[in-house]
Amino acid sequence: MPRRPSLTPKQDPTKAGTGSHWYVTTPGSMTPDGSLRRSYFPSEKDADKLAKKLRAQYAAGIRHAAIDPILARDAASAAELLKGLGVSLTDAARAYAERVRATGTTETFRERYDKFLAANEMDWSNRYRRDMEKLADKLPPEFMKRRVAEITEANIQEAAGFRATGATAIDTRARHIRAAIASKPKPRKRREVKIFSADQVTALLGSCKTKEETRAVALMLFAGVRPDAEDGELVKLTWEDVTAAHIYVSEKASKTGAERLIPIRPRLRRLLEGHPKTGKIVPAQWRKTIQRIRKDAGIDGSIYQDGARHTFASNHLVAFGEDATKDAMGHTAESRTLFKFYRRAITAEAGATYFKITT
Predict the structure, then answer these.
(1) Which residue would you say has higher pLDDT here, 323 or 20?
(2) Which CATH architecture has domain 198-354?
(3) How many angstroms separate the CA atoms of 17 and 164, rounded?
(4) What are the angstrom distances between the C-alpha of 325 and each of 36, 61, 305, 332?
(5) Residue range 22-47, pLDDT digits in tens
(6) Domain residue spans of the chain
(7) Residue 274, class by beta-carbon neighbours within 10 Å (0-12 exposed, 13-18 middle, 19+ buried)?
(8) Residue range 341-349: average pLDDT?
(9) I need a surface site. Which of 17, 25, 109, 207 has the fewest CB within 10 A?
């Protein structure tokens, strides 16, 4: 049985006159590198503080006290998982570090997925885009938090099978997960982005029969809120989310799961005047209502898919710049969607007129 170490302050005659000749010796069993350590102090009182701390740690059975206890427990758990595999904890940590360096990222799947959506939403067919947007709701929360670097094929299959009803659904989810991880989506279907003319914007607003309808359409046209009638951002917003200065799109309401603030420009502010303080923004039976409004305005839905959002983005880009437009639309800093689709023949003057920021 090892002898109990002597943890008491001592004097070092060779250090007399230096101002620090009291010392405490910490045995190797209580240092992180296993080497004996001598700590010097100006007085016996100061030295005794360390000595008392070391004695208490020794009595509590703590060794290598410089290592955080939580880290020590974590290392012990990791070593237990590796038991019988012929792999040391250091080897496992080294292999994981190399894997992270190889992928060049520490992103979680949630972060990679959000960037994937924002960067490619205009390249996909409508069906593929809807499938990708709904993917996050079909995967386990813990998988969304997992780092991309540590996701294996087994992890993908397990996540794809979460509450799945058949082999086809599992295969489809797994394929979408792999696409998001690789950031190379297929199939791609590039399509032309159509925006509304000034006359079409006027016709849409004029086809609204109530102030409630006008306000909802105004939020589509002048705030770029995603308008899907079933589970889009517009149907999830309430009037509590609308202040005098901005519209708050929460994580739950946002398509990408990232919250954002959309500034309320002068034209939208006038259209929202007198709005309720609480309650849902969209009228009842919104799908039928917006279809009727578009039809009355002479808007072909298949040609002008997401036309209101595209019109907002194109005008906002020339009026307020790239950074402000990305923030308002919920695009990531890396997204190239604005440059791909919204750089069109709209003058800064036209953009200012659209939002009525000039007289």
Answers:
(1) 323
(2) Orthogonal Bundle (1.10)
(3) 77
(4) 61, 59, 20, 11
(5) 888 888 777 766 678 888 888 888 88
(6) 1-82, 109-182, 198-354
(7) exposed
(8) 70
(9) 17
